[in-house]
Each structure stands twice: as C-alpha cells, then as structure tokens.
Amino acid sequence: MRQSNLFTKTRKEAPKDEVSQNAQLLIRGGYIHKELAGVYDFLPLGLRVFKKIENIIREEMNALGGQEVLLSALQNPELWKTTDRWNDNKIENWFKTELKGGGELGLAFTHEEPITKMMTNHVTSYRDLPKYLYQFQPKFRNELRAKSGIMRGREFVMKDLYSFSRSEEELDTFYKEAGVAYENIFRRVGLGDVTYLTFASGGVFSRFSHEFQVISTAGEDTIYIDTEKKIAVNEEVLTEEVLEELSLERNKLVEAKAIEVGNIFKLGTKYADALGLTFKGEDGKESSVHMGSYGIGVGRLLGTIVEVLCDEKGIVWPESVAPFQVHIVDLSQGDEKIQALALDLYKDLEKAKTEVLLDDRDLRAGEKFAQSDLLGIPYRIVVGKHSTETDFEVVRRSDGLTRGVSREAIIKGEYGF
Ligand code: ATP
Ligand code: MG
After folding, report:
1. Which of 76, 195, 289, 367 has the fewest Cβ atoms surrounding its Cβ within 10 A?
2. Is 96 exposed, middle or buried (0-12, 13-18, 19+ CB in 10 A)?
C-alpha cells in the first residue's frame, strides 16, 4: 500500500470531546472515526488490525472445536420474557426498537436466549452433543458512561461462544480448555505478561465466573493480584471467605486497575430449562443441556493493546496484529535515484508477501518520522541519502533500536534485532 493512496490521513489533534488515550491515538493515526460518544467506525488501517485480532481469536476458537455462526442483531422479546431479561429493571442497558405494525424488538446485547432457542431445533439426542458455537457479532448496549473510547462502545463487536454439553463434567472440561484458549489469545496479541485470570462474581450458576483482566491505569475495574500464583480476585468478590476458599492471603495481594478483555461463565441448565433445550440420553432419559458462555470484545481488546503498549510518540503494535509489518519511509525529497531505491524495495517486499506501507508522500523528514511513530508499524526502513542498493537502516518501533540491514535480509524479514 502506498501512503499517498491510503484512506485516511493522520491528524495532529483528536476531537476535543475524546478523553480516552486509545481513541485519541487511533483517531489521530487514521485508524478509526468517531461517530458519536461510544460509537466508532473502523477505517482501512483500523480494520486491518481488527481482522488480525479477529483471526487470532477465530483460530483459537476453531482449535477448541468451535463452529462459527452469525446470529441476528434483531431479537424477539418473547424469548427474553421467558428468562425475565426483557425487563428494564433487570437489564438496564437494552436498546429496544419498535416494529411498524406494532410490537417491540430488542437490539442484541448478548445471545444466550436466541442461541438456546435455536438449538432446540437441532438437539434431540446425546449424539447431537457436545456443540460449541461462536460468532463475531455486533452488540448494542446503552452504556451510561462511554469514556473509555473503543473499550466501552454503545455498539461493539463481541466474539461470543456458547457451549452445549451433556453433563456438568463435560461442561467443566470444556470450560478449562476455553480458559487455556483465552490465555493463548491474550499472549498472541502481546498482552501475555499483563493478563490475569481473575475470579469474579458467578452470576447464575457457579460460585465464580472468570475474567481475563489486563493491568492498565485506563482500566475501570479494580483487582487484587497474587503475582506468584498469577491469579487475581475482582474487588466485587473480595471477602475473607473468598480469600480462604482460594487459599490467598490478603497481605500478599497487590491492588491494580485493570481492563476486562474477556470473561467465561458457567451457565448450568438455567437457559436450557427456561427455553426447553433438552436431549435424550443413552438410557432414554430426557435431560437439560449444560451451557457456558465465553465473551471477548474485539474492539476492547484492540483498544487495550493501544493503551498498554503505546509510548509518548504513539501506538506500538506487536507484529501479530500490526496493520503492516514494515513501513518504508522514502526520504528522497525529489532525488529520483533514492526514490527508485525505495520503490524497488517496496515492490520486492510486496512480491515476498510482506505487508508493507510505503510513505511516498512529499513531506518533511521530521513530519514523516512523527507520523510513522504515531502509526506504530513494527519496523521502519528509512530510505535516504545513506541508503545503498544493498543496505538500509531499519528502526524497531518498540524500542527505537536501529540497525543497518542488507536488502537480502530485509526481503526475508530477518532484521537481526
Ligand atoms: P463490563 O463489566 O466491562 O461492562 P461485561 O461484564 O458486561 O463487561 P460481558 O457482557 O460478559 O461483559 O461481555 C463479554 C466481553 O465483551 C467483555 O469481557 C468485554 O471484553 C466485551 N465488552 C463488554 N461490554 C463492552 C462494551 N461496552 N464495549 C466493548 N466491549 C465490551
Ligand atoms: Mg464485567
């Protein structure tokens, strides 16, 4: 991709009403556009990162045995009345809308009810189970405060997986595997060192649910970490009794602000009972399906990566989710020989299937470097007066280290850092 052709441009200032660091940097970098508070569009650069994250999650969900579906965003109130979740006093952040001919519809804030109902058409015998269905699907939540940029959207894409098992043991086994898959995801997007499995309130079925919390001052949650055991407890469940149950000592726990990037819940038979999702066992007996739900906010995860890894100059993407791996900064300033060097390198990198962005615009060097830092592409290749046909300067964005690297090595993606 040539930057002269890229939609859109970097900006010096973020909108005045944008208070979060993640959205400020992403807007300035041309990754996203702000429609209104808590509502953001993804532009080409942002969508590239979004898709990378989505694919990492998808690979891990498929490895778990998940099958991808896409359920509708418009929802039938009748299903939600069955579980008493249509009630605005129970669920405070519903967006609801009306049909022309009369009657209400809900805009999806989650999918337990519709997916459970849908499964009643497909599950009759123990042979139909277990099944694991997941989707990347827009959710709508009438969040009271939307001050965390894309980490708390009023519209956002969630990966939600629902597990359908024959017994509590089968659910427990899958639940553990899902936890491992989540750890893989957060490690792969560069947050492994700062993500803690956190005990949180269980809601309907089990004593606890588990959250995956990333340490960050931008976080809205407070957690208490045991750094040796690498687990944490959400303040919402921090009691003497819970600490004892988890064999944790209060004075060994460190308080921290954190961002909930994902969570996993055991739902037991609550939804299956309410909506009639049963199966006939080997012995001919009819039982309710045991369910679990497993969420990750894709935009929240993207925003969290920005918050945690950025520096004073801008965004710092890990290679696994970067929109491009290499940013060639052409400093030819009208010198055709240098321009040809940059262009040749660009073309050869494209041929080698390296994701490369070429800054071929007519701007001052200082401006190009500042914008390159803001964009956060992992490796910058500077093509200027000192470049030769065989040697270039490569700068690593994460720590600013600079090396002279041969053209041959660059084409192979070997920078030697
Ligand atoms: P929170 O406690 O932050 O409000 P939640 O506990 O309501 O979130 P779930 O309903 O379990 O979250 O949603 C699953 C995942 O979806 C969360 O772990 C988070 O990553 C993401 N998520 C939830 N709400 C939002 C939002 N408003 N914007 C972006 N992502 C969200
Ligand atoms: Mg929560």
Report:
1. 367
2. middle
Write the residue with the smallest CA distance to atom 14 of ligand 1: 295
**Co-location of 299 and 337 in the same domain:** no
pTM (predicted TM-score): 0.97
Q: Give the nearest ligand 1 atom to 293 CA.
A: 11
Cα 26 to averaged position of ligand 2 atoms, centre (Å)? 24
The per-residue pLDDT for 203 is 67
Q: pLDDT under 70 in the chain at which residues? A: 203-204
pLDDT for 65 equals: 98
CB 112 within 8 A of CB 106: no
Report pLDDT digits (tens) over 130-153.
Answer: 999 999 999 999 999 889 999 999
Same domain, 189 and 71: yes
Query: What is the span of the domain harbouring residue 348?
Result: 326-412
**Quick one: which atom of ligand 1 is closest to the CA of 160?**
14
- Of 243, 275, 309, the residue that ends a domain is 309
Cα 243-292-164 angle, rounded to 5 deg: 150
CB 220 within 8 A of CB 236: no
Q: Which atom of ligand 1 is nearest to the CA of 141?
A: 27
User: For position 335, what pLDDT does the model report?
Assistant: 96
Report how many domains make up the chain: 2
Pocket of ligand 1 (CB under 6 A): 110, 141, 143, 152-153, 156, 158, 260-263, 295-297, 299-300
The answer to whether residue 297 is domain-embedded is yes
